[in-house]
Amino acid sequence: MNPYIDIIRPLNCLMIVFTVLLSAYIGYASTGMTIIYLDVIIAIIITFLIFSGGNVINDYFDVEVDKINRPNRPIPSGKISEKTAYNLAIAFFLIAGGLSTLLNPYAMIIVWVNIFFVYLYSKIKEKTPYGSLFVGYFVGSAFLFGGVVANITSLNVLGILAILAFLSNVAREITKDIEDVDGDKYKKTTLATYYDDRTAGTISAVLLFVTILISVLPAPYMNEYYLYLIAVADMLFAYSAYRMINNPKEHASEMQKFEKIGMIVALIAFFAGII
């Protein structure tokens, strides 16, 4: 894969883009307003740029850890220099910020707040065990961003979806931290290194179980397809939670993939539930 494509993690970015697109659609549908396609397109581009830049700046600040955990990543492997990666990330952020002036003031505020937090997170995450909270916020805010772009005044179902996204993503980030604990303990502070892998695994499992409980709340706003699909996502989350309680370090690598699949299925459930 081309290193410049690899470093932005396009699949992850497209998941967030789909989240914004979905939330904007829900926002327009809930108000009965005519869809302003230009605003939606601008929002999608901004989202892709911010999260691409976030992935690049994350790799920039993570280079020493990646030399141990992921030596084939573009920066530690030498395919992209640290200076080039940094400049690329800043360019993405500035273009996204510039484009946000074409949206309403509330959407523009969310864009600049997210750019600030993305940069701050990448810079301090090695020093705080609670970096996973930032990641959860970023994904949850994508639902809010799409709704604000659609000029909705009441978050209702989007607020619930934002909370679900926050919880499931924090859980997965903790699982990923457990997967990387051997390399991280020498270079960065995570929940798994600050406490231990079993404590972190239990916290991840609890968050997944709470996600499952809350996932029924959007049902009154959705059709029956939501319930069918969210049940599949919940089963994936439940299985992962069970594994993370029993032997987190052994199963973390596999379970973070299960949790990612669960989140993709949940996104499909949200979409299917409103069409």
How would you concisely characterize the structure shown here?
The protein has 275 residues and is mainly α.
How would you name the CATH homologous superfamily of the largest domain? UbiA prenyltransferase
Helix content: over 70%
Question: What's the number of extended β-strand segments?
Answer: 0
Number of helices: 13
The major β-sheet equals: none
The helix/strand order is HHHHHHHHHHHHH
Shape: globular
CATH-level-2 architecture of the largest domain:
Orthogonal Bundle
* Percent of residues in beta strands: under 5%
> What average pLDDT do the residues reach?
88
Number of domains: 2
Uncertain residue ranges: none
Q: Could you name the CATH topology of the largest domain?
A: Tetracycline Repressor, domain 2
Provide the structure class.
mainly alpha
Give the radius of gyration. 18 Å
CATH class category name of the largest domain:
Mainly Alpha
Gap between N and C termini: 35 Å
Structural overview:
78% of the residues lie in helices and 0% in strands. The longest helix is centred in the N-terminal third of the chain and has 25 residues, at 37-61. The chain starts with a helix and ends with a helix. The protein is mainly α and 275 residues long. The protein has helices spanning 3-6, 10-31, 37-61, 63-69, 82-100, 105-124, 131-149, 156-179, 181-184, 191-194, 197-214, 224-246, 248-272. α2 runs antiparallel to α3 (37-61), α2 (10-31) packs across α7 and α8 (156-179) runs antiparallel to α13 (248-272). The protein folds into two domains: 1-154, UbiA prenyltransferase (Tetracycline Repressor, domain 2); 155-275, Four Helix Bundle (Hemerythrin (Met), subunit A).
